Amino acid sequence: MAAMTKALPRRLVGLASLRAVSTSSMDTLPKQVKIVEVGPRDGLQNEKNIVSTPVKIKLIDMLSEAGLSVIEATSFVSPKWVPQMADHAEVLKGIQKFPGITYPVLTPNLKGFEAAVAAGAKEVSIFGAASELFTKKNINCSIEESFQRFDAILKAAQSANISVRGYVSCVLGCPYEGKISPAKVAEVTKKLYSMGCYEISLGDTIGVGTPGIMKDMLSAVMQEVPPAALAVHCHDTYGQALANTLMALQMGVSVVDSSVAGLGGCPYAQGASGNLATEDLVYMLEGLGIHTGVNLQKLLEAGNFICQALNRKTSSKVAQATCKL
Amino acid sequence: MAAMTKALPRRLVGLASLRAVSTSSMDTLPKQVKIVEVGPRDGLQNEKNIVSTPVKIKLIDMLSEAGLSVIEATSFVSPKWVPQMADHAEVLKGIQKFPGITYPVLTPNLKGFEAAVAAGAKEVSIFGAASELFTKKNINCSIEESFQRFDAILKAAQSANISVRGYVSCVLGCPYEGKISPAKVAEVTKKLYSMGCYEISLGDTIGVGTPGIMKDMLSAVMQEVPPAALAVHCHDTYGQALANTLMALQMGVSVVDSSVAGLGGCPYAQGASGNLATEDLVYMLEGLGIHTS
């Protein structure tokens, strides 16, 4: 481990001297991007190997030290459904809460919301979808019924002065319905925004999207919701995540979800890769001259730590290139 | 193996029904992209395990059947330097030559060129670089001296009616020099084009580039060489290959090099990944409504 820590700075110094930062006028690109780190939740949730509470806490603390400003810490979901997240209260209570960093947690229902608040949550996330079939199979109700459930959470959150982030799944395609109409995504996103979500993360849940579809979808959504309230959440199942994210940035999105080490898998495609890797995202943003606030070296250390704990190789190309095997 | 062959069609059917094709007006994107498959050469060359001649031949035949129109078959380089390519003549002679498909081979010098022609080559590739240090370390001469070597090949190729494709390495960064100026890339590219290369492939050899740098570099090069004569060759060492390729398409490039299964590695970054994977490139192009075959 010590040898690896020594190796990292050398390679990164090499990296810094190698890399140019673009000077071309990329007028449509944001000057700053907020990265929402979902590794501890979306990433771990889809990993086969269960990791202990101290490991989860250490991961989140390392991510905090890496300069990320939003780290999705856990999910207040029933352990029956997601065993990996069974220790949600302990994790939320155990992590260091750095000033200037928020630690949202998933709350699929009012019960989960109340448990989250009791454990000290200051921000929560709720999960909608642009597909009726996916909603039915995932949470056993229609999209309309899911809005009723969310409304209960949003009202309670408003009373408790707690921010709510909305997610829309399947925005570029659904494992059950196939193609998803941009108009439907816009409708669901608008609804969540009007109900009180401060930000909506648009997720290519099964990673099937390509840049043109991303553009079509965002064009429709941006007619209904201001770009500043939107985020993209791309899965790399078919290797398209970074290209899709670039397109979203070109369209004016300035919030991007990603997962350290590209943690996560895809329950619908066995053996497929997971989320966009935060390291690879940061690499691109830095090269584009876009401010992120992230210390790539510390991020790589966090990724290395969790991969060792999970006994898996990283899915981040940057990590593969900079760490000796 | 039979079970796997059965599984593939099911998943691909599922894939076709899942995926939408963009209808947005992506005016700046080409309607058609020519893919140059470099797996059998650039890919295999950087793989640790040596594969047999029959395996190489079968790979190339399978790639031909997959509908690729350009497949870089091998490299007429000394086996002392690149053991994987020692069987270059046998491979070139052994593969099926489908009509409508070209099988260029690398020829680092006149001797290699002559051996390639003797083995039946109809198209060759030559490799320049935008970095003096890289050229020095790679082929032990200056960029100017490398042009003299290429000139010999280009003249011989012209006499023999053989097409020559030029490569420029390190266009977005060099393992020795670091940053590479777009002006230098433009200068080297223009030289190769004026010497007679019908197409120049611009390679991010160590994969360090990001989309803004790709744009800067192409802006400079396109002032000197027509976009139709340009290709990009992105390595995925830092996961940037597809995003960089997308930027190149947005800039008007319509020829992209890639490697089946993302074969290859990076001699400068142990454990790093290799070329842009052809499967992932095709996936994106199809989703964009761009014709590939």
UniProtKB/TrEMBL annotation, chain A:
MF annotations from Gene Ontology: hydroxymethylglutaryl-CoA lyase activity; magnesium ion binding; manganese ion binding; structural molecule activity
Pfam families: HMGL-like
E.C. code: 4.1.3.4
Catalytic activity entry: (3S)-3-hydroxy-3-methylglutaryl-CoA = acetoacetate + acetyl-CoA
Cell inner membrane found in the keyword field: no
Main subcellular localisation: mitochondrion
Domain of life: Eukaryota
Keywords tagged on the record: Acetylation, Disulfide bond, Lipid metabolism, Lyase, Metal-binding, Mitochondrion, Peroxisome
Gene Ontology annotations for the cellular component aspect, listed alphabetically: mitochondrial matrix; peroxisome; protein-containing complex
Pathway named in the protein's UniProt entry: Metabolic intermediate metabolism; (S)-3-hydroxy-3-methylglutaryl-CoA degradation; acetoacetate from (S)-3-hydroxy-3-methylglutaryl-CoA: step 1/1
PANTHER family (UniProt xref): HYDROXYMETHYLGLUTARYL-COA LYASE (PTHR42738), HYDROXYMETHYLGLUTARYL-COA LYASE, MITOCHONDRIAL (PTHR42738:SF1)
Subunit: Homodimer; disulfide-linked. Can also form homotetramers.
Similarity remark: Belongs to the HMG-CoA lyase family.
Protein name listed in UniProt: Hydroxymethylglutaryl-CoA lyase, mitochondrial
UniProtKB/TrEMBL annotation, chain B:
Reaction(s) this enzyme catalyzes, per UniProt: (3S)-3-hydroxy-3-methylglutaryl-CoA = acetoacetate + acetyl-CoA
Classification via InterPro entries: Aldolase_TIM (IPR013785), HMG_CoA_lyase_AS (IPR000138), HMGL (IPR043594), PYR_CT (IPR000891)
Quaternary structure and partners: Homodimer; disulfide-linked. Can also form homotetramers.
EC number: 4.1.3.4
Protein's gene: HMGCL
A Pfam family: HMGL-like
Highest taxon above the source species: Eukaryota
Subcellular location: Mitochondrion matrix; Peroxisome
GO molecular function, one term: hydroxymethylglutaryl-CoA lyase activity
Top EC class for this record: lyase
Source organism per UniProt: Papio anubis (Olive baboon)
Physiological role: Mitochondrial 3-hydroxy-3-methylglutaryl-CoA lyase that catalyzes a cation-dependent cleavage of (S)-3-hydroxy-3-methylglutaryl-CoA into acetyl-CoA and acetoacetate, a key step in ketogenesis. Terminal step in leucine catabolism. Ketone bodies (beta-hydroxybutyrate, acetoacetate and acetone) are essential as an alternative source of energy to glucose, as lipid precursors and as regulators of metabolism.
Pathway(s) per entry: Metabolic intermediate metabolism; (S)-3-hydroxy-3-methylglutaryl-CoA degradation; acetoacetate from (S)-3-hydroxy-3-methylglutaryl-CoA: step 1/1
Name of the protein described by the UniProt record: Hydroxymethylglutaryl-CoA lyase, mitochondrial
Domain called Pyruvate carboxyltransferase: residue spans: 33-293
Main location: mitochondrion
UniProt entry keywords in alphabetical sequence: Acetylation, Disulfide bond, Lipid metabolism, Lyase, Metal-binding, Mitochondrion, Peroxisome
